Amino acid sequence: MVNRNQxxxxxxxxxxxxxxxxxIISVISSTCYKISEAIRLSxxxxxxxxxxxxxxxxxxxxxxxxxxNNLLIxxxxxxxxxxLMGSEEIESVIIPNPNNKNAEFIVxxxxxxxxxxxxxxxxxxxxxxxxxxxxxxxxxxxxxxxxGNKAIAAGYxxxxxxxxxxxxxxxxxxxxxxxxxxCPIITNSKIIHGNSKVYSVNxxxxxxxxxxxxxxxTSLKSGVNGxxxxxxxxxxxxxxxxxxxxxxxxxxxxxxxxxxxxxxxxYECNPLSFIAKNTNGYxxxxxxxxxxxxxxxxxxxxxxYIGNNxxxxxxxxx
Length: 318
Known about the structure:
The protein is an alpha+beta fold. It has two domains: 8-188, Fructose-1,6-Bisphosphatase, subunit A, domain 1 (Fructose-1,6-Bisphosphatase, Chain A, domain 1, 2-Layer Sandwich); 198-316, D-Maltodextrin-Binding Protein, domain 2 (3-Layer(aba) Sandwich), CATH 3.40.190. The chain has seven helices and 16 strands. It has a seven-stranded mixed sheet, with helices on both faces. Strands 11-10-12-16-14 form a five-stranded mixed sheet, with helices on both faces. Helix 2 (19-40) runs antiparallel to helix 3 (63-79). The longest helix is centred in the N-terminal third of the chain and has 22 residues, at 19-40. The chain is globular and about 55 Å long.
């Protein structure tokens, strides 16, 4: 049974999941707290700005991106429970060090989503998902190239006015806030998508939208489906977090000329889509369920639409 004010350890003990999985989630939680403290002191400790490196996405690496990525890799490796990892910041699969070839779990993550907003103190976050391995070959990318519907847990942490961590399994989705000692305490339990009429879209890309996308957004503005409000932070994790709690839909369409989206299927879209499915929501690439897409490569990008079932139905029928 999930009760408000339980700590994370008590919460996990009440879930019907493996002990190794509980350990991994606990370590992700403690790591996210360390990341939140690093962000809080980033100005003082000279952690703002670029490292001078370019990541696999062709983007300049932020100092805090690097710190968050390294912390997650190090701490997850040291659990001895992780078979392989995948990071938005790293080109190939990550073999833990120290290594445990008998471990069963795969962890994928975006260590610091929305990092372009770091320097101006806008909400950013960490996104993750956990799978079981498909074979015992640590050089086989297929262990990471799994459909999102095969995830067994997912979550995110937002670093904003407060640090909030969401943990989702098929059994439950709850949110935690950290106390002064870094202990996560349940503050929202049994989360279900809100029903406010909000759309989160970067409308500066209007000229790149399909006619369907233009019809959909125009219909929301017209009032035919009720009075809508636009809210767009520009950090995926922040936009999704707000819409999950309050209601709405987030969209970042693919470029119709190339069919390529901006957001990463494995590290961003699948984890959030898994959470949406568990909370009366749905996610699509514009045509099919995100969770049913078989990844073709570790850094595949897709169009992304995610929200509660009502909002997604309005989009589908536009």
